[in-house]
Amino acid sequence: MEHKRPFLLGLIGGVGAGKSTVLSFLEKHYHFHVIQTDLTARRLLEPGEAAYEKVVSLLGPGVLGPDGSIDRTAMAGMIFKDPTKRQAVNAITHPLTWKAVMEEAYACKKCPVVIETALPSKEFRDKCDEMWYLYTSEENRTDRLMESRGYSEEKSRAIMESQAADQEFRDLADAVIDNNGSPEHTKYQVKALLKGREGIRYT
User: Fold this and answer.
1) For the segment 93-135, what is each residue's pLDDT rounded down to a tens digit?
2) Which residues belong to CATH 3.40.50.300 in the chain?
3) 3-state SS string over the chain?
């Protein structure tokens, strides 16, 4: 008899939406295996990993730090105001990242999996059993980024403008979680969405 693949959940939302709070809750109380696409992408940019040589070849030695690793701040400076370079880097990193992410997800046989990303797509949606959108207002996201990461208001707004719009997230989601209130209210919504799911229990 073929082994049934565990429940695969997609969690989408923009920068500063508070996805880490939901991921921590899912991992601790529902025993989800957590995959964050941004962390996977960072790993693939390390020396010897799949995207390293291609990105260095594209951007040149100026993208490297003293230790030979890719300086992410330098890379961000190179591509932030140059759409052509940004698209070229994305064309390298995105396919490699999603390949690694899905391989990790499908290798997990005994627990549910949640994949978090700020890059929603129909292709990703079609791979998931369900997708949730964590909605937080731009005002609250800006405040959180300024407080938690030390970003300026200008930088916070610029990053948000470069990401998918609210409606794009909503169009792909099976459920929307409002994260503008307290953490307890957010957790209540998660509990309601998972209540009665086969093989998924709160502990």
Assistant:
1) 999 999 999 999 999 988 999 999 988 899 999 999 999 999 9
2) 1-32+111-194, 41-109
3) CCCCCCCEEEEECCCCCCHHHHHHHHHHHHCCEEEEHHHHHHHHCCCCCCCHHHHHHHHCHHHECCCCCECHHHHHHHHHCCHHHHHHHHHHHHHHHHHHHHHHHHHCCCCCEEEEECCCCHHHHHHCCEEEEEECCHHHHHHHHHHHCCCCHHHHHHHHHHCCCHHHHHHHCCEEEECCCCHHHHHHHHHHHHCCCCCCCCC
Cα(75)–Cα(96) distance, rounded to whole angstroms?
Answer: 18
- Residue list for the binding site: 16-21
CATH of the domain spanning 41-109: 3.40.50.300
Q: Report the binding-site residues for ATP.
A: 16-21
Looking at CATH, the fold of the domain delimited by 1-32+111-194 is given as Rossmann fold (3.40.50)
Output the pLDDT for position 4.
66
Report yes or no on whether pTM surpasses 0.85. Answer: yes
Residue 154 CB coordination number (10 Å): 9
